[in-house]
Amino acid sequence: MHTPAEHARLYLNDREVGDVVVRKCDNGWGFGEFCPNENFSQFAPIYGKWALLMHADEDEAQLSEAASEELRVAEYEMDAIRAKLLLQGSGEWRDLMQVNIDGPLIEWKQR
Protein backbone atom coordinates (compact mmCIF):
# COMPACT_ATOMS: atom_id res chain seq x y z
CA MET A 1 0.00 0.00 0.00
CA HIS A 2 2.99 2.30 -0.34
CA THR A 3 2.48 2.97 -4.03
CA PRO A 4 1.21 6.51 -4.65
CA ALA A 5 -2.24 6.80 -6.23
CA GLU A 6 -3.17 3.18 -5.54
CA HIS A 7 -6.91 2.60 -5.77
CA ALA A 8 -8.91 0.78 -3.12
CA ARG A 9 -12.50 0.18 -2.07
CA LEU A 10 -13.64 1.00 1.44
CA TYR A 11 -15.93 -1.41 3.29
CA LEU A 12 -17.72 -0.47 6.50
CA ASN A 13 -19.53 -3.25 8.36
CA ASP A 14 -19.01 -5.46 5.29
CA ARG A 15 -20.70 -3.01 2.90
CA GLU A 16 -18.80 -1.37 0.08
CA VAL A 17 -19.24 2.36 0.71
CA GLY A 18 -16.90 4.03 -1.78
CA ASP A 19 -13.60 4.35 -3.57
CA VAL A 20 -10.31 5.51 -2.08
CA VAL A 21 -7.30 6.91 -3.88
CA VAL A 22 -4.35 6.18 -1.60
CA ARG A 23 -2.00 9.17 -1.63
CA LYS A 24 0.42 8.45 1.20
CA CYS A 25 1.22 5.97 3.96
CA ASP A 26 3.33 6.94 6.95
CA ASN A 27 3.91 5.12 10.27
CA GLY A 28 0.90 2.83 9.88
CA TRP A 29 -1.41 5.68 8.81
CA GLY A 30 -2.84 5.97 5.32
CA PHE A 31 -4.08 9.17 3.70
CA GLY A 32 -6.13 9.65 0.59
CA GLU A 33 -9.23 10.86 -1.16
CA PHE A 34 -12.65 9.32 -0.64
CA CYS A 35 -15.51 9.16 -3.14
CA PRO A 36 -18.60 7.66 -1.45
CA ASN A 37 -21.30 5.61 -3.10
CA GLU A 38 -24.97 5.36 -2.03
CA ASN A 39 -24.16 2.80 0.69
CA PHE A 40 -22.20 5.43 2.60
CA SER A 41 -25.44 7.29 3.40
CA GLN A 42 -26.04 5.17 6.50
CA PHE A 43 -22.58 6.11 7.86
CA ALA A 44 -22.48 9.72 6.68
CA PRO A 45 -24.18 11.18 9.79
CA ILE A 46 -21.55 9.65 12.08
CA TYR A 47 -18.59 10.88 10.06
CA GLY A 48 -20.27 14.23 9.34
CA LYS A 49 -20.83 14.84 13.04
CA TRP A 50 -17.21 13.96 13.77
CA ALA A 51 -15.95 16.33 11.05
CA LEU A 52 -18.13 19.19 12.32
CA LEU A 53 -16.88 18.68 15.86
CA MET A 54 -13.27 18.51 14.71
CA HIS A 55 -13.70 21.96 13.20
CA ALA A 56 -15.75 23.35 16.11
CA ASP A 57 -14.01 25.94 18.19
CA GLU A 58 -11.28 26.29 15.50
CA ASP A 59 -10.62 29.80 16.75
CA GLU A 60 -9.92 28.50 20.26
CA ALA A 61 -6.71 26.91 21.54
CA GLN A 62 -8.68 23.81 22.59
CA LEU A 63 -12.18 22.40 22.28
CA SER A 64 -14.79 23.32 24.84
CA GLU A 65 -15.75 20.62 27.35
CA ALA A 66 -19.11 20.13 25.66
CA ALA A 67 -17.56 19.78 22.19
CA SER A 68 -14.90 17.42 23.58
CA GLU A 69 -17.57 15.17 25.09
CA GLU A 70 -19.59 15.11 21.85
CA LEU A 71 -16.40 14.36 19.91
CA ARG A 72 -15.61 11.46 22.26
CA VAL A 73 -19.11 10.00 21.66
CA ALA A 74 -18.72 10.38 17.87
CA GLU A 75 -15.33 8.66 17.99
CA TYR A 76 -16.79 5.72 19.96
CA GLU A 77 -19.45 5.37 17.27
CA MET A 78 -16.80 5.44 14.53
CA ASP A 79 -14.61 2.93 16.38
CA ALA A 80 -17.54 0.49 16.57
CA ILE A 81 -17.63 0.32 12.76
CA ARG A 82 -15.65 -2.57 11.24
CA ALA A 83 -13.57 -1.12 8.42
CA LYS A 84 -11.37 -2.65 5.74
CA LEU A 85 -9.85 -1.71 2.41
CA LEU A 86 -9.70 -3.87 -0.69
CA LEU A 87 -6.63 -2.89 -2.71
CA GLN A 88 -7.57 -2.95 -6.38
CA GLY A 89 -4.15 -3.75 -7.82
CA SER A 90 -3.23 -6.70 -5.62
CA GLY A 91 -6.64 -7.84 -4.38
CA GLU A 92 -5.32 -7.69 -0.81
CA TRP A 93 -7.56 -6.87 2.13
CA ARG A 94 -6.37 -4.49 4.86
CA ASP A 95 -8.10 -4.45 8.23
CA LEU A 96 -8.40 -0.96 9.65
CA MET A 97 -8.78 0.02 13.27
CA GLN A 98 -9.54 3.68 12.79
CA VAL A 99 -11.05 5.55 9.85
CA ASN A 100 -11.57 9.31 9.75
CA ILE A 101 -13.52 10.85 6.88
CA ASP A 102 -13.71 14.61 6.52
CA GLY A 103 -15.45 15.53 3.26
CA PRO A 104 -13.33 14.15 0.41
CA LEU A 105 -10.38 13.38 2.71
CA ILE A 106 -9.83 10.06 4.43
CA GLU A 107 -7.21 8.78 6.83
CA TRP A 108 -6.94 5.37 8.41
CA LYS A 109 -4.81 3.35 10.79
CA GLN A 110 -4.06 -0.25 9.87
CA ARG A 111 -4.32 -3.06 12.41
What does this structure look like?
α1 (44-55) packs antiparallel against α2 (65-79). With 111 residues, the protein is an alpha+beta fold. The longest helix is centred in the middle third of the chain and has 15 residues, at 65-79. The protein has one domain (6-110). It has a six-stranded antiparallel barrel. The chain is globular, with a radius of gyration of 14 Å. The chain starts with 5 loop residues before the first strand and ends with a strand. A hairpin with a 2-residue loop joins β2 and β3. The protein has helices at 44-55, 65-79; strands at 6-12, 15-26, 29-36, 83-87, 93-102, 105-110.
Strand order of the largest sheet: 1-2-3-6-5-4
How many angstroms separate the termini?
Answer: 13 Å
Structural class: alpha+beta
Question: Rounded to an integer, what's the Rg over CA atoms?
Answer: 14 Å
pLDDT averaged residue by residue: 90
The portion of residues forming beta strands comes to 35-45%
How can the largest sheet be summarized?
6 strands, antiparallel, barrel
Q: Per the principal axes of the C-alpha atoms, what is the gross shape? A: globular
Number of domains: 1
